[in-house]
Design a protein that fits this description.
Layout: E1 9-14, H1 18-31, E2 35-40, H2 43-52, E3 57-60, H3 69-78, E4 85-89, H4 94-102, E5 106-109, H5 113-121, E6 139-144, H6 148-158, E7 164-166, E8 182-186, E9 203-207, H7 212-220, E10 225-228, H8 234-389
Parallel strand pairs: 1-2, 1-3, 3-4, 4-5, 6-7, 6-8, 8-9, 9-10
Length: about 400
């Protein structure tokens, strides 16, 4: 079984500003290792730090007015520093070139914090100790690089990486077993075209600054990255290879996960189709019942509507009857009042009739009396005449 031991990394930083310190803190975190960083700002502090505890790495930001990168490198060399000396700056200028020519390990421009983090990640890290003496390479790399002198230069740098196995030349002898895990190709007029069946392989580019725009476009199309020929160094090459291998591993992991997810999705789709079929079979009677219920609901609705219309008609008829009843009651009241008036008039007439009858009777009685009196008078007259005659 493999065991990896990661030691703390002691870093001595020649720094000037808080903003740079913030950027470096992000680099430390990106390494995934325990970083013990110490910052100095003066020549004396730098020499004291080198003497007190030799660092594993020196990082110079090349921003010091009294202690530039070349002077700091000379002091480190005079102190017999064995650790790498790297430069971090805005861009690679004359000062950086002088430092590299004088023995600086590497230069990292702004925007290359990921490469710096990878460089630190590889510092003092014990290689995996396998259970057997045999070591299996992790990655087959094809160097698709011309001219020969450049290819040999790159090969020499890569031979120090135990994780890499170089695929031999010439190109036309490559068989399917040589299918590369990583294709490292130079981008120039001398390099032959990449085989079409390798077009989908992970690609790392080696280009000159004149063709950097072309390399950037290839990266946008899927290449893993590129190294400028003018910046080619062993640390940079190792960092680029490690990053490419890490990206390739992640891509393969993602591909495996995607394949697993696709298979899972296919299985789920099959189960879903089976479930839908079973559900359709089970819901067929329910749908028929729903249809019947819908028809019944429609019939009930129609009947309810007819009943409501009939009820409205009855209500209208009842309203009309109520109006007629009210009119009849009013007429009956009028007739009652007229009848009462007639009764009063009849009673008055009866009373008058009774009075007339009474007067009539009284008149008849008076007439009889008059007749009697007339008869008496006549008798009296006769008696008077007789007396007179007598």
């Amino acid at each position: 079984m493999t065991q990896v031991i990661m030691q703390d990394v002691r870093i001595l930083v020649l720094n000037t500003s808080a903003s740079e310190r913030s950027d470096l803190t992000q680099v430390w975190q990106a390494t995934g290792r325990s970083i013990v960083a110490k910052e100095v700002r003066t020549r004396d502090a730098f020499l004291e730090a080198l003497a007190s505890e030799p660092p594993d790495l020196v990082v110079n930001l090349c921003l010091f007015p009294e202690l530039d990168g070349l002077a700091a490198l000379q002091l480190a060399q005079d102190a017999n520093l064995k650790a790498p000396f790297v430069i971090v700056g805005e861009k690679r200028g004359t000062g950086a070139e002088e430092c590299l020519a004088a023995g600086a390990t590497a230069f990292f421009a702004k925007g290359e914090e990921g490469q710096l983090a990878e460089f630190i990640r590889q510092l003092n890290s014990d290689q995996p100790m396998p259970s057997s003496t045999a070591q299996t390479p992790l990655c087959n790399v094809v160097l698709w690089i011309e001219p020969l002198a450049l290819r040999l230069r790159v090969e020499k740098m890569l031979l120090k990486l135990n994780e890499v196995k170089l695929v031999p030349f010439p190109y036309n002898t490559l068989s399917p077993v040589h299918t590369p895990d990583l294709l490292f190709a130079s981008l120039n007029e001398l390099t032959p075209a990449i085989p079409s069946d390798w077009s989908n392989k992970p690609l790392l580019l080696l280009v000159s600054e004149e063709r950097e725009a072309e390399a950037i476009e290839l990266v946008r199309q899927g290449a893993l990255g590129y190294i400028l020929l003018e910046h080619l160094s062993e640390p940079r090459l190792h960092i680029a290879i490690h990053q490419a291998l890490r990206q390739t591993t992640l891509q393969n992991q993602y591909i495996d996960k995607i394949s697993t997810l696709q298979q899972t999705l296919t299985d789920l789709q099959s189960r879903l189709n089976a479930t839908e079929s079973a559900l359709k079979r089970r819901t067929a009677p329910l749908r028929l019942l729903e249809k019947t219920l819908a028809e019944q609901e429609l019939t009930i609705a129609e009947r309810t509507k007819a009943h409501e219309e009939h009820l409205l008609s009855l209500q209208q008829t009842l309203t009309d009857l109520q109006s007629r009843l009210n009119a009849t009651e009013s007429a009956l009241k009028d007739e009652q009042r007229h009848s009462d008036s007639l009764k009063k008039h009849s009673q008055s007439k009866n009373s008058l009739l009774q009075n007339a009858q009474k007067h009539t009777r009284n008149f008849s009685s008076g007439t009889t009396t008059c007749s009697c009196m007339q008869s008496v008078l006549e008798n009296c007259s006769s008696t008077q005449a007789a007396l007179f005659c007598f």
